[in-house]
UniProtKB/TrEMBL annotation:
Domain of life: Bacteria
Gene3D superfamilies for the chain: 3.30.720.110, 3.30.720.120
Name under which the protein is recorded: VOC family protein
InterPro entries documented for this protein: Glyas_Bleomycin-R_OHBP_Dase (IPR029068), Glyas_Fos-R_dOase_dom (IPR004360), VOC_core (IPR037523)
PANTHER family per UniProt: BNAUNNG04460D PROTEIN-RELATED, VOC DOMAIN-CONTAINING PROTEIN
SUPFAM superfamilies registered for this protein in UniProt: Glyoxalase/Bleomycin resistance protein/Dihydroxybiphenyl dioxygenase
Organism: Nocardioides bizhenqiangii
All residue ranges annotated as the VOC domain in the record: 9-130
Pfam families: Glyoxalase
Segments for region (Disordered): 112-133
Amino acid sequence: MTETTDKTTAGSVRMWPALTFRDVDTMIDWLRAVGFTEHSTYRNEAGEVEHAEWLWPEGGGIMFGSDTTGIVRNAGGSAIYLITRDPDGAFERALSAGASVSRALEDNDYGGRGGSVLDPEGNHWSFGSYQPS
């Protein structure tokens, strides 16, 4: 297990999207490159991630684990919107870490700026400055 010492940020998060990854170590590298920080990661004796909690530094978090059965239906089929003050930077970090463009960055008619990528497993991530009210 790996665990950070500051639990105050994680304790204030009230929604944790849950993902399953086929290649969890590749996705851990991708999440770290995009800007997520590890809160805790629990591995079994075989080294598979049974449970992980990672935080988005501007608020929020995700939980994830390894697809150890090969039959998890949502592996690669999730979609998440991340609010950030720097959508261009997050978008570029995602691409540099292996994502592909799904929707180019643009200024939105409803406010904010954003764009979308597909991560190495096909999950859809949108990075934007628009904060729903």
